[in-house]
C-alpha cells in the first residue's frame, strides 16, 4: 500500500481567485499545513473541458441536483425544478461560463490526507456559510441566493477534489503524467520521518 504521505489532490484557483489577487494567499495556506506542490500551471479552458471536469463522477448531476433541491427546501424556498438533472443542467451552464471567463491556476498537492485537508482549508461550497478561517469563508461574500438571482455560478474562488476517487479522475483530466514532479522537501523529514530522534548535536 502506498504511504499516506503520497496522497494527491487536484486544486484550481478559479478565475475570480486570480482577479482578487489571492493566488499567493491560497498557495500559502496549503503550504503552511505541510502539503507539497507537485504540479502547477496557468491555463484558460474551454467549455467541454469544464463540463467533463464536473461530470467525471457519473453521479455528480444527480447528487448535486438533489443536494441543491434539499438546500432550497431547508430554507423554506421552492426549488426552480423538482428534477435534479434540470437543476444541474443550469448549474453546469453557469459553471462553464464562470470557469472559462479568465485564466485559472491548476495544481496538484501531495501529502498525508491531502484530499480531506485541502477541503478543510477551502471550506464549504457557499461562501456565505463557509466557516471562518477557511479560504471561502475568509476571502469572499457570495451566496446561492445572490448568484441564483443574478443567473450565474456562485463565486467561491477555488476548486478542490471532494474525494480520493474524484482526485484520481481530476488529476489526469488536467495534467499529463510528466507535468507532475515527485521530489523531496527538507521538511518532509520533520513531518513524516519515523526515526527522527537525532536532532540534538
Ligand atoms: P464544491 O466541491 O465545494 O465546489 O461543490 P460541489 O462539487 O458540490 O459543486 C460544484 C459547484 O456546483 C459549486 O462550486 C457551485 O458552483 C455549484 N453548486 C453546488 N451546489 C449548489 C447549489 O446548491 N446551488 C447553486 N446555485 N450552485 C451549486
Ligand atoms: Mg466538488
Q: Helix fraction?
A: 40-55%
**What is the class of the domain at 4-44 and 102-192 in the CATH system?**
Alpha Beta
Q: Which word captures the global form? A: elongated
Count of alpha and pi helical runs: 10
CA radius of gyration = 18 Å
Major beta sheet, strand line-up: 2-3-1-4
**Computed structural class:** alpha+beta
Second rung of CATH, namely the architecture of the domain at 4-44 and 102-192? 2-Layer Sandwich
So, the CATH homologous superfamily of the domain at 4-44 and 102-192? Nucleoside diphosphate kinase-like domain
Mean pLDDT: 96
The share of residues in extended strands comes to: 5-15%
**Total number of beta strands:** 4
Biggest sheet overview: 4 strands, antiparallel
Low-confidence spans: none
CATH topology label of the domain at 4-44 and 102-192: Alpha-Beta Plaits
| Bound ligands, each once | guanosine-5'-diphosphate, magnesium ion
Q: Strand-and-helix sequence, N→C?
A: EHHEHHHEHHHEHH
Task: Characterise the protein shown here.
The protein is α+β, with helices and mostly antiparallel strands and 201 residues long. It has a domain of 132 residues: Alpha-Beta Plaits (2-Layer Sandwich). Helices cover 45% and strands 12% of the residues. It is built from ten helices and four strands; from the N terminus they run E-H-H-E-H-H-H-E-H-H-H-E-H-H. The protein is elongated. 29% of the residues are buried. The model has no long low-confidence stretch (mean pLDDT 96). The site of guanosine-5'-diphosphate has 15 residues, from helix 4, helix 5 and helix 8.
Amino acid at each position: 500500500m502506498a504511504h499516506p504521505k503520497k496522497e494527491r489532490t487536484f486544486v484550481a484557483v478559479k478565475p475570480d481567485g486570480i482577479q482578487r489577487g489571492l493566488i499567493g494567499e491560497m498557495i500559502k495556506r496549503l503550504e503552511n499545513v505541510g502539503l507539497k506542490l507537485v504540479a502547477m500551471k496557468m491555463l484558460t479552458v474551454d467549455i467541454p473541458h469544464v463540463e467533463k471536469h464536473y461530470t467525471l463522477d457519473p453521479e455528480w448531476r444527480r447528487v448535486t441536483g438533489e443536494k441543491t433541491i434539499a438546500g432550497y427546501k431547508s430554507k423554506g424556498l421552492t426549488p426552480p425544478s423538482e428534477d435534479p438533472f434540470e437543476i444541474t443542467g443550469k448549474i453546469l451552464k453557469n459553471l462553464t461560463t464562470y470557469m472559462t471567463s479568465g485564466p485559472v491556476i491548476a495544481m496538484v498537492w501531495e501529502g498525508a490526507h491531502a484530499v480531506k485537508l485541502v477541503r478543510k482549508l477551502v471550506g464549504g461550497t457557499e461562501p456565505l456559510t463557509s466557516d471562518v478561517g477557511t479560504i471561502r469563508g475568509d476571502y469572499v461574500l457570495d451566496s446561492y441566493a445572490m448568484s441564483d438571482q443574478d443567473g450565474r455560478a456562485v463565486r467561491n474562488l477555488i476548486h478542490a477534489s471532494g474525494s480520493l476517487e474524484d482526485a484520481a479522475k481530476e488529476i489526469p483530466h488536467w495534467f499529463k503524467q510528466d507535468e507532475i514532479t515527485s521530489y523531496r522537501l527538507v521538511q518532509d523529514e520533520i513531518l513524516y520521518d519515523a526515526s527522527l530522534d537525532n536532532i540534538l548535536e
